[in-house]
Amino acid sequence: MNGPLKRAAVACLVMFGLLMLNVNYLQAVRADELREDARNQRNYFERYAVQRGRITAGNEILAQSVESKSGNFKYLREYPQGELYAHVTGFFSPESESQIERSENSLLDGTSSDLLIRRGIDLFTGEPSKGANVDLTILPKAQKAAYEALRQSGKRGALVAIEPKTGAILAMVSLPTYDPAVLSGTDKGKVFAAYDKLAADKSQPLLNRNIDRTYPPGSTFKVVTAAAFLEDDDSRDGQTVVAAPQVLDLPNTTAGLPNYGGAACGAGQVPLVFALEKSCNTPFGKIGMELGYDKMREATEKFGMGEPLSIPMAVAKSDFGPQEDQAAVAQASIGQRSNQMTPLQMAMIAAGIANEGTVMKPYLVKKVTDSKNDVIKEADPDELTEAISPDAAAKMRDMMVSVVANGTANKAQVPGVEVAGKTGTAETVQGQAPHAWFISFAPAKDPKIAIAVIVESGSARVGDEATGGGTAAPIAQKVMEAVLR
Question: What is the rounded CA–CA span in Å between residue 242 and residue 272?
Fold first, then answer.
């Protein structure tokens, strides 16, 4: 090879080397910087180039992509019933997604490996690729009843309903809510400004209170304490007499544990069912201390607490609290102290008792179909835990029926339907009214629905109206009535 050719070859090799270095530099070192560069619009427009799949529930469209009249964007996302389903569908913004839009994103936008065959067929036939459709377990009449009942309370709160025998989520409402369409436009400036405004709102409308936040469960947790008590000795039942002092002495402290409002609970000794009906604190605090921290924590874990959950959205971890002293065990056993539960976890507890002691894994996606309505995947109900024996579950069911028929939850009664439930009032930060809780299932002996309701700072006065019985139970009652009647 002569000199000029050698020099040309070396020059070409140098240029190829520099080119490769530049490509790696741009793709590895400056990738994030260039991705965020306002001049880089390619990914932005590609996000709207494929018809994203529908999100549906009960033959109702919750989210869909429609053809755009704008030349830059082929499809736009719509939410026909936005605020009603916002915390289920989530939003699809220019740069992010939430809730189902995020957890099922690869299916909705058609990039999932589950759609490989469909994409291949579309490529062969020349049809444009489309995303898969996601059909949810939500029951629209339950969702609408929950939304209206919570909205009429005028408070922040949440409601989640489960089908006990399968774990299918029938309703999931969190208030306040928002309109996903506001966050799903194509104008980044408007979308980001709207998001910042919602994120700064102290009422936290973007928060799905059913799965993203934990609360002290208050007296609704007494069903777990009662269940642990029954499981510890199968000879016990609702008529087993338990100690019920007006104030329970707490070891190693000068403080005592009183009943709600300082009330007495019978004459010092009462049947377990009476203690549950009247939601007495002292019997359950004493039971918790007698069982001890390990048994109480184990009982809670058997109802699913501590299990990593996704529905498919990730669920915040519920927790009975750390091991401290006996006084802390007593307080945690009535749903206070460090005891923190999501509304979904409390609904799972109600559903587990309803389902003869078996807790099913909760889920929100019923089935996924491709653009030709061929089923890609379908829900297969799965057992999560065996919480208590069928015998203990039947005893708990009967006691919870008595709470609705004769106790603090009489406002949850549905004519012609036997309802089981438990009210709760959970103390929160000083200076704020307690949270009002209610968990339930119905019909008691053939359960179709289990519910957990929380109304934040929903209790204002001592007495039934101050508890979950006056504030949260009527909300659950409206949902049960809508579903069962």
Answer: 6
How many other C-beta atoms are found inside a 10 Å radius of the C-beta of residue 294?
10
Determine phi and psi for 188, rounding to 5 degrees. Answer: -55, -40
C-beta of residue 216 within 8 angstroms of C-beta of residue 426:
yes
Q: How far apart are CA 224 and CA 246, in angstroms?
A: 22
pLDDT attached to residue 465: 41
Measured CA to CA, the distance from residue 200 to residue 119 in angstroms comes to 41
Q: Which residues of 124-156 are buried (b: 16+ CB within 10 A; e: fewer)?
A: eeeeebbbbbbbbbbbbebbbbbbebbbebebb
Tracing tokens 């309803």 back to the chain, one arrives at: 354
pLDDT in tens, 1-21: 577 777 777 777 878 877 777
**What does the block give as tokens for 427?**
């103390």
Best CA proximity match to 277, nearest among 447, 60, 423, 127: 423
Query: CB-based burial of residue 1 (10 Å sphere; 0-12 exposed, 13-18 middle, 19+ buried)?
Result: exposed
Hey, is 63 helix, strand or coil? strand
Report the distance separating Cα 145 and Cα 168, nearest Å. Answer: 17
Give the 3-state secondary structure of residue 401: helix
Q: What are residue 423's DSSP bridge partners?
A: 438
> If DSSP states are collapsed to H, E and C, what string results for 177-200?
CCCHHHHCCCCHHHHHHHHHHHHH
CA–CA–CA angle 29, 34, 39 (5° rounding): 165
Which segments within 75-178 are labelled E, that is strand?
Answer: 75-78, 133-136, 157-162, 169-175
User: 219, 279, 318, 459: which one is catalytic?
Assistant: 219
What whole-number distance in Å separates Cα of residue 276 and Cα of residue 407? 8
Q: Which of 40-44, 72-76, 325-329 has the highest mean pLDDT?
A: 325-329
Query: What DSSP element (H or E) covers 393?
Result: helix 390-406
The pLDDT tens digits of the residues spanning 197-234 come to 999 999 999 999 999 999 999 999 999 999 999 999 99
Relative to beta strand 268-271, strand 241-244 is antiparallel
Contact indicator for 108, 101 with CB cutoff of 8 Å: yes
Tokens of 463: 């007495």
Cα→Cα distances 150→175, 180, 211, 406, Å: 7, 19, 17, 25
For residue 219, indicate whether it is catalytic: yes
Q: How far is Cα 404 from Cα 451, in angstroms, rounded to an integer?
A: 14
CA dihedral 365, 366, 372, 374 (to 10 degrees): 120
State pTM to two decimals.
Answer: 0.88
Beta bridge partners of 358: 386
Residue 313 has phi, psi (to 5 degrees) of -65, 145
**Which tens digits make up the pLDDT trace of 273-322?**
999 999 999 999 999 999 999 999 999 999 999 888 999 999 999 999 99
Query: What gap in Å lies between CA 64 and CA 75, rounded to an integer?
Result: 10
Distance CA 174, CA 205 (A): 8
